[in-house]
Amino acid sequence: MQQPIKVLLVDDHEMVRIGLAAVLDTEDGIEVVGEASNGQDGIRMAQAYKPDIVLMDLVMEGMDGVETTKKLLELYPECKVIVLTSYIDDSKMYPVIEAGAFSYLLKTSRAGEIADAIRAAARGQSVLESQVAAKMMNRFRQPQTPKQKPPHEDLTEREMDVLQRLAEGKSNQEIADELFIGIKTVKYHITNIFSKLGVDDRTQAAIYAHKHGLAD
């Protein structure tokens, strides 16, 4: 005979736990092995009862669902956490999924849907409530903002040569002598450097160069 799927309930609302336990106890192949009213007790009971599935609330006093999920899976990675919550906002949904939650359901789900999600999780199949799945798909469909390149990448090779010597504290004449160019050309390059880097003077340009590893 196949062993029942052992389920632990972690929710700080007693009536929610009572209702879930009553419903799940009528489902074939599912056994509620314990109920915890907070994250700390949930972790202790999970270690004691070794449930296959943990039905986890998100908003609880003390250790919330995200922290509890993370800690629980560190200590007992074989179990699968199904989030059962009233919240669907990004600030709660994405962190708990990143923490390792296996499925995400809303408390508006029907009893049969919760039981089906438990059975699916026991088979290794994740279930996302339709609103949650839609939000995740929309998040990944949004175009990613390309990273802006640092301003110094717009400098020409000669401007980079001037910037490096400027950062070393050399005068315009010294820069001109080292690069075999005229004073006016040095001033022209410095003006371009200030404009491209968005700085106002030699000191700021030197600080930028050192900050970005462009000079010794």
From TrEMBL:
<protein>
    <submittedName>
        <fullName>Response regulator transcription factor</fullName>
    </submittedName>
</protein>
<feature type="domain" description="HTH luxR-type">
    <location>
        <begin position="148"/>
        <end position="213"/>
    </location>
</feature>
<dbReference type="Pfam" id="PF00072">
    <property type="entry name" value="Response_reg"/>
</dbReference>
<feature type="modified residue" description="4-aspartylphosphate">
    <location>
        <position position="57"/>
    </location>
</feature>
<keyword id="KW-0597">Phosphoprotein</keyword>
<dbReference type="GO" id="GO:0000160">
    <property type="term" value="P:phosphorelay signal transduction system"/>
</dbReference>
<dbReference type="InterPro" id="IPR000792">
    <property type="entry name" value="Tscrpt_reg_LuxR_C"/>
</dbReference>
<dbReference type="InterPro" id="IPR039420">
    <property type="entry name" value="WalR-like"/>
</dbReference>
<dbReference type="GO" id="GO:0003677">
    <property type="term" value="F:DNA binding"/>
</dbReference>
<dbReference type="InterPro" id="IPR011006">
    <property type="entry name" value="CheY-like_superfamily"/>
</dbReference>
<feature type="domain" description="Response regulatory">
    <location>
        <begin position="6"/>
        <end position="122"/>
    </location>
</feature>
<keyword id="KW-0805">Transcription regulation</keyword>
<dbReference type="GO" id="GO:0006355">
    <property type="term" value="P:regulation of DNA-templated transcription"/>
</dbReference>
<keyword id="KW-0238">DNA-binding</keyword>
<dbReference type="InterPro" id="IPR001789">
    <property type="entry name" value="Sig_transdc_resp-reg_receiver"/>
</dbReference>
<dbReference type="Pfam" id="PF00196">
    <property type="entry name" value="GerE"/>
</dbReference>
<keyword id="KW-0804">Transcription</keyword>
<dbReference type="InterPro" id="IPR016032">
    <property type="entry name" value="Sig_transdc_resp-reg_C-effctor"/>
</dbReference>
<dbReference type="InterPro" id="IPR058245">
    <property type="entry name" value="NreC/VraR/RcsB-like_REC"/>
</dbReference>
